Amino acid sequence: MATATPANPVATPKPVDTRGLANQVIGETKICAVTQTELIYRGYEIADLAANATFEQVAFLVLVGHKPTTAELEAFNKEIRGMRDVPAHVRERLQQVVKDSPAAHPMSLLRTGVSMLSHVDPECESNAPDAELRKSKRLLAKIPTLIGIIQRAVEGKLALDPDPSLGHAANLMWMMTGKKPSELEARIMDVSLILYAEHDFNASTFTCRCIASTESDMHSAVCGGIGALKGPLHGGANEMAMEMLKDIDRDCAGGKMTTDAWMQRAFAEKRKLMGFGHRVYKNGDHRAGILRSWGLKLAEQMGPDAKKWFDLGDQVQAIMLRDKNIHPNVDFPCGMTYFIMGIPVPQYTPIFVAARITGWCAHIMEQHQNNRIIRPLAEYQGPMNLKW
Prior knowledge:
CATH topology of the largest domain: Citrate Synthase, domain 1
CATH superfamily of the largest domain: Citrate Synthase, domain 1
Number of strands: 3
Shape: globular
Helix content: 55-70%
Number of domains: 2
Number of helices: 16
Low-confidence stretches: none
Radius of gyration: 23 Å
Largest sheet: 3 strands, antiparallel
């Protein structure tokens, strides 16, 4: 006798793709929350912070855990600005590494610089909470100096001394370019650092926490984070986004090709277009709009040669949304914004480190304070019981 078909058959659920730990909650944190519509740093939404806070205030918030008072912020700023110098022998050795390895990626050089700093930090091996907070401040202060040493060495120039009269963002630009930024340029860099400061268990932060969970030291964990951030699928995306725009501008110069035609060719070739899409945000990265508005403000002030990059970016963004329904992430406007400010493209990802060091260090401290070694299981899919 045939079995009757149910009137309303139950659909077979699609298997959940968990590769790369997608859709998996693997820990708890009080540092950051990422939702489809909000990015929260210790209770404060990113748009509020970008509009009303400085990067130093956000760094204090992320590292210490609360909004600083006026007195706390003044003391924090004084402390950080007094920690920016690196020992002469670290500077000289890093310059020699650049000279001996001219093809080295700036992120690899920065990783080496942080490793060198570990050997001169008197509290390197201590995971005590007070020692880790002091190490966090030292890393926050010194990383822009390392970035400046590397970029100047790449250009065959002498390293500059940090300027204690400048804030974190302005000093970072000074160390790299040898020029004091305008008030607007400094504010734009400050906002970009706020937007990049923290983003829960992303690949580099998770790397830091994995290393910290073995009770290894902060410098080792940060070196691991730099290695993870270096990849083009993570921090390197802002560099690749700008290189893509430069390719479009070159190929379409003089009316040789339209932007739409270039994009259709890229789609047909299955070219990976960086600066679009996000593992978490499915309806757009709200950081992207914040940074675009600041970058466009500067571009309009600078004139047509600068604004053309944002006009081109808007065309690319519209085509991606129309044909692929994919929104830009923060790396897309970041590439254009840094470019018109004269920042060398290879330093885009190291700048990311100058911001994300706050999030990394906060997560390393949180991991150490409530630790259990991170050791997931794997589903083995190979042969069994073979005979040797």
